[in-house]
Amino acid sequence: MVMRRSTTRPAQGIDPWMLEAERTVQRISTRPDLGPAPRSSLVALGLLAALRALGLVLVAEAVARGIAGLAVGTLSTGSVRAILVLGMSGVLLRAAAEWATETSARRVAIAVKQNLRGRLWRHMVQAHDPRGGTAVLATDGLDDLDEYYLQSVPAIVAAIVVPPLLLVRILAADWVSALAIVVTIPLVPLFMVLIGRHTGQRTDAALRALARLSDHLAELARGLPVLVGLGRVEEQTDSLDTIQRIYGRRTQETLRWAFLSALALELIATISVAVVAVFLGLRLLGGSMDLQPALLALLLAPECFTVFRRVGVAFHASQDGLAALHRVREHLEVAPGTDLREAHGATVRVAGLEVRYSGRGAAALTGLDAELSGIVAVTGASGAGKSTFLSALVGALPVDAIVHGRVTGIEADLVGWSPQSPRVFGATPRAELALYGADPAAALAEVGLSRVAESAAAELSPGELRRLSVARALARVDAGARLLVLDEPTAHLDHHAAELVRDAIVRRAERATIVLASHEPMTLDLATSTIRISGQAGRADDDASALTEAARDGDLGASPVPAVDGNADQGRYGRGPEQGVCAGADEQVSDETGGAQRLSLGALIGAHGRLWAGAVGISVLATSLGLALTALSGWLIVRSSVEEYIMYLLVAIVGVRAFGIGRSVATYAEQLLTHHAAFRTIDDLRLRLWRTIAARGTGSRRLLEGGAPLDYLVTQADELRDQLPRVVTPVISGVAVLLGATLTTWLVTPEFTVLVGAGLVTTMALGAVLVATVERGGDVARVAGRSRLVRGSASLSAAAADLRGNGVAAAAVDQLDEINRKQSAAERRATRGAGLGTAAVTAGTGLLAVLVAVTDPAVDAERASVIALLCLALGESLAAWVSAVHRVPSVRSLLHSLGSVLGPFPQATWGVGAPNGPVNSVTLEQVSVRYPHTARPAVAGVDAVARTGCWLFLDGPSGSGKSTLLSAVMGALPLSGGTIWAETSPITTFAEKEWRSRVAWCPQDAYVFDSTLRGNLLLSRPAAQAPDDAALRRVLERVGLTVLLDALPDGLDTRVGAGGRALSGGERQRLAVARALLTRADVLLLDEPTAHLDTPTADAMMEDLRTAADDKVVILVSHRHDDRRPEDQVVRLS
């Protein structure tokens, strides 16, 4: 049997420092797409649009009859009662239809998003796309569909349903007006098409740029720990600023064309209504038409044009949603990776297994035949294909793998797997093991992790993470799995922890076939058979004696240490971030610091106060012009019915025209300025968040991992950016318009001042109260739910291979589905509240208009028409105010969450100087480090010296504080006692930037960017000091990657895939070391640099490292005894 994946090269990833790197992006269609929405929902929306139109007809009928009655003095008690019944019926019908439309559209949007999210998550674990942009797409991207289903789809349906219904009533009242509308109404869709064609190409280009730039932001967020370690945060801060400014410019370019289209359509609609109004006015002036049908036609005609204008505006506004829909479809069209496994057969057999990766000249694995039973050791040099073979056994090969051969005797759901670079999905070790079907307490105790059961998974050290990974794979065997696959199960572990793991493996030997890859002789000694992989072919060797003899006779590769007692882990986990209860996906950073800084809305927008003040002022002006247009139009029609000379009306006619054009232009300006202010505000905030996370991150991995940077920098920041224009401007302008409307009423008809003022205040208050009562914190829960979803999606994306290989992907997706259901419930509550608030405003303003028309017969028709139409026109502004008030709690929640990141945290007090010349020694004198809110230090009383030519070797069990000490040397953690000296000066006498530039950190499992080999290496230095190709090749030679480089057709320009997935674990580790070596730092901090490497490769790389770093101060963390030299100083932590 041969199974083959397509050789089509996958879409390339994003290079975060090459802003205009091109990637294949399908052109986004400008044709409306109903997506996966059920067609029955369109019928429901059509019926609701018809009811809304009927309600408008009834309200218009009531207002027209009332004002006409005032004009001729024929209002009686009976006619007033009939008008009130007619008007109230229309108001209630229209309000109910508005509420039902919004609720129904939201229900459709929620159902579609829930369905697409589930499908995307399931596809994510099958196709294993670890790009951060995929997690953003599954959350923020799909949330953009709200605009599409809430605006575009109802607008399209209304454009089909409403005009014919209104034309029928206008035709019954005045056939001339109906004819004028029929003649002019095609202008709107005609210009919509023309404008769409003109702007479509620009919009598509902007949206393609947005897709790339959103991935840029996600990639920078995920790679932040590497940037911190290389001292590249400041330069990448400039890159982030450039990226977000390009992102903002592109987004505003898209918005500019959308707003310009809206402006053009608004002007066309205004002119078209003016044509109808001219016919009405002239015929009223000539006495050939009655006032009532003229008013009815004037009130209904704008809606005939408005529904088409809404289609154009809504479609442009929903382009992000359409783009997200297309991107989701593109992702879902990518076939999952090839899984050769077949369940038949009692023994695991591999026949003719060959694996090739796209872009590689040579096969990763060729002609492997084996029969697996007992404990099988897979050996070979780093990069020979061991992990590829193990991935084939567990069905975790990447989607671009081209696979031949057969693998039989494996049931996909009965496999336990611990990969080389494990990733966790659960928030805590207890939650992770529960997901894998284990008894968490027993599983953790078996590998010595009982004390970290409730710790945040993102805070675990690599050694602890390794043991957790093994524990969950063992749990799969306990649950019935018959194949246990372990890739480097004892890497990063001290002797005692490794012994615990080896004993646990042996205990499962009778229950499952065990296949393990390792470079540690004591672990390989467990094997009963061996498969040697040379990178070209594999062969099974039933006699493991040669290997085990090497293990017995040679150095065991790990320094024996005393057994770790309970205080070892407690030394680390008795401190702040790691102790305490389970850290959920929405846990606030303030939990770590003891309090959050209050980030107020005023302080946030204050830096750009002039922009916001201008936006509010123009918003008030635009709304006022719109109100004046409507009110003056009503007065003009009524006056035309009694005026004999047209000259008297010309001033008003010019005023109507000026107000109409002025409103359109002012609205356009206000939208541009408001969004520009929002982008400027959030850009500044994002940079503050970036710098703070970078400064705090090395002391709290929770801020750097688990999707937290993506959540803060992308999801929450973008959510706040979207909320600001919908809160700041509407709240202030709504109050201003209320005061202006009340003042206008007092000036025009003092008799109605109390009625109108009290009615508008009551309407606004009722709308706000109804929203708060019905939604019950739904919008706040919605915002919090988005954070949980993006973090969960990021965790799912990162851990996809682990979940799939262990057969628990469905359980993980089920957990996200539950979060998704809660999110949907919160959105439904928020929508019911918002819809009810809008309905209350519609009902209130419509009722006021009817009451003004019939309450006081002594008021003349001209003044009554001004106030009645003014009340009707206020609906949109007051609805925006209620919606803004509804969003205030969610804005407050976002400010609190982001403020928790920006809150005060312990940090060193730095000086202003710089080291005099190279740093040739670093001395630790009684150094102690204690995390906030803990009584016991993580590291206490450490004395050590590292100098050029004499490395400092940090030893100790997992969790003993080795990485903490490295963070202190970097200056990322303040000391609670002692001093760190650089030559003869404490490091805190230097400026922080100066010291950070002298230190380079290579962490364990360092992140590899979705770029090229060249691009990852160039991160080591500023662009002005970039090394040439010769330097890049030399450093790759020093870390043993020359063979790999020579085998790549594209050489240094070969892309390494998202997270470096095109490289083996050892190759990723060596690339990270090469990146650190390229820096010009005087002090080099290496954390397990030889992990995942075979002994010859590790020995050669360490020898080259000694040569390359002979002029540097090196502090090394390693459990490998052979990495030491006699002249090195060894400090053992416990």
- How many β-strand runs? 19
CATH class label of the largest domain: Mainly Alpha
SS strand fraction: 5-15%
Average pLDDT number: 80
User: What's the number of domains?
Assistant: 3
Assign the CATH topology of the largest domain: ABC transporter transmembrane region fold
Low-confidence stretches: 1-32, 536-596
How widely separated are the two ends?
54 Å
Q: Which structural category fits the helices and strands?
A: alpha/beta
Helical content band: 55-70%
Per CATH, the superfamily of the largest domain is ABC transporter type 1, transmembrane domain
- Contiguous helical run count: 35
Second CATH tier, the architecture of the largest domain: Up-down Bundle
Strand order of the largest sheet: 6-7-8-4-9-10
Query: What would the principal axes of the Cα set say about the shape?
Result: elongated
**C-alpha-based Rg, rounded:** 35 Å
How is the biggest beta sheet arranged? Answer: 6 strands, mixed
Transmembrane segments: 42-60, 67-93, 148-168, 175-195, 257-282, 611-633, 645-666, 754-774, 833-854
Membrane topology: Multi-pass membrane protein
Main location: membrane
Subcellular location: Cell inner membrane
